[in-house]
Write a structure and sequence with these properties.
220 residues; alpha/beta; Rossmann fold; 2 domains; two-stranded parallel ribbon; 14% strand
């Protein structure tokens, strides 16, 4: 257990209570999170002997998905369990406006679970839940505006392939959607140059372009 406690002490702490956007990270927090994810991946083969296998002992993580999911749902469930936590499936219909207000749902969840992973149609709904609660950690598993967990996984893959990303060029071809927004944010925070090619009428939102330019580091 001593090794496990030391491993937990080494996990980087982030300033934001919630993870709704790549922009919730500082540049250093993003780099540290990617490094931690790669380390956890290497240690998976150790099973219960992994230093972080008890990181979420006694923690309950809610999963509230308003949209269909295969990869995100399965991998979140496995990830939480491998860290010692318990996943709680929350029916999507609790978010219907005619059932009860979103802020009431949030306050109730805060009493029962430590964090909630939400896949929803509205980024604003995530922001509202996060703002309503003081201790509940809210994680964006996809919204209409951003898909930060997908971007983290993609950036981790690029880091494992290339090492340092600063000075590299990333080309994104497709709709300027939630995935594109999060990917551009993350890549430019780590010093990459980004080229985005989209069909006419499906461009990256101007807001995302301005945000990416604001957080870009030298070399991006």
């Amino acid at each position: 257990m001593g090794a496990s406690m030391r491993a937990l002490d080494e996990i980087p702490r982030v300033g934001s209570k919630d993870f709704l956007s790549i922009l919730d990270f500082t540049h250093d927090e993003l780099a540290q999170t990617i490094a931690l994810a790669s380390r956890l991946k290497r240690e998976r083969s150790l099973g219960l002997r992994a230093p972080t296998s008890h990181a979420l002992d006694g923690r309950h993580i809610g999963m509230l998905f308003e949209k269909p999911s295969l990869r995100t749902r399965v991998t979140f469930t496995i990830g939480v369990r491998e860290l010692g936590g318990d996943m709680v499936e929350i029916p999507a219909d609790v978010m219907h406006a005619d059932r009860e207000p979103v802020h009431d749902v949030a306050r109730n969840l805060e009493r029962w679970v430590d964090a909630v992973v939400i896949r929803t149609f509205s980024q604003e709904r995530l922001v509202q839940i996060g703002a309503t609660t003081k201790q509940l950690h809210v994680i964006n598993a996809l919204s209409d505006e951003e898909h930060p967990c997908q971007a983290l996984a993609d950036i981790q893959t690029l880091t494992e392939l290339w090492g340092a990303l600063k000075g590299r060029t990333l080309a994104f071809v497709g709709d300027g959607n939630n995935v594109a927004t999060s990917m551009v944010h993350g890549a430019m925070m780590l010093g990459m140059s980004v080229r985005v090619a989209t069909p006419k009428g499906y461009e990256l939102p101007n807001k995302a372009v301005l945000e990416a330019a604001h957080v870009a580091v030298d070399g991006a």
